[in-house]
Structures are given as C-alpha cells and as structure tokens.
Amino acid sequence: MALKLPRTIRLDPSDTFVYARAAEPGEWAVTGTFLFFGADVENLSGKERQAFRGGFLGVESFGWSTLVVVTEATAEERAAAVERLAEQLVARCGAPGMEAARPAAEEEIAFVQSLCDHPPNTLLALHRADEEAGIRESFRTLHQKVSRLDPARAFRVIEIDEEDGPAEEVDIRALAGRQT
To answer: Which InterPro entries match (predicted)?
Structure first.
C-alpha cells in the first residue's frame, strides 16, 4: 500500500485573505489543532476564528489552508515532514528541544496520514468545534463525480461526504471586507 500524506492546495486566492498567514500550495500539512489547545476559542475573532474553524496547518510556513489533497509520498518525504514539524514546534511553540518535539511531530504526521485512506487527488476539508469535552474535529472528503458517459467539461459537480452534520457556510466576500 502506497504511503499518502496531505499537501496544501489553493484552488483560488481566498486563503490569502481568509487567514492571517496562508500556507503555500504544495506544503505537507497537519491539522494544527494543537495550536488551539488552551486557547479561549469563544473569544477568537476574524482570521484567527477562521483558522480555528477550518484550517489545515502547512508544515513549512505554519500558514493555513482550507483544503488539502491526498498525495503519494516517499518514506524520506514523510521523515522530512516529521523533522520539519519538530523544528517548527521548537521554534514557534516552545518545545524544549528536538527530543521532545519529534514524538509530537511523529504523532501529528501519523494522524494526518490516517486521514489519507483515499485515492490520490482526493480533497479533504476540516471543521473544528469547541465543545464541552474539548475541541472536536470532523473531516469531509470531496470527490469528483465522474461517469464515462459524461462528456469532458471544465466544471463538474462534486459529491461531498460529510461525517458529522452539515457543512458550515462561510461568506468569503464578507470576510474579505473585514480588517482584523
């Protein structure tokens, strides 16, 4: 079975104004939920709130991406992603050293790897909610609905599989007009 990991993807420029820092397309990604542990989630606003609600964290930039794409990876690429995330945990999150950061980075990479049990090029979306028991994550997959009888065309309807409840709607135009 091929090794698969999520990479950030940017289908349009919206991430660049929805988030304070957008991930670069093509970065390895983790959920980034650890950045919200202990945060006063109810008082997050604007771009921070949007990152909480639906952002994947790019390992290289520590920027956010609304979607990730399931991508085949080599063992070397996976190991490099773990190492880079560990470095980021030390530099940006206060981990006391690489010895402490590596197991945490390994755990984060293993978790997102478990989300990639889909064909390559499947898009994944994330929704976080702050609940009494803690932060709850739910994931959706977006698949292209294809029929061999359909003619080729630029746009197709996609089918969305939702694990937990309806998708949240976001008015991107309204968010773009806000300054945070």
So the answer is: DUF6505
Give this prediction's pTM: 0.80
What are the b/e assignments for 110-127, b being 16+ CB within 10 Å? eebbebbebeeebbbbbb
H-only helix segments in the chain: 15-18, 46-54, 75-93, 98-115, 172-177
Which amino acid, one-letter code, is at 149?
A: L
Per-residue pLDDT tens over the stretch 62-103: 999 999 999 999 999 999 999 999 999 999 999 999 999 999
Q: At what angle do helices 98-115 and 75-93 cross, to 10 degrees?
A: 130
Sign for the pseudo-dihedral over CA of 83, 85, 87, 93: negative
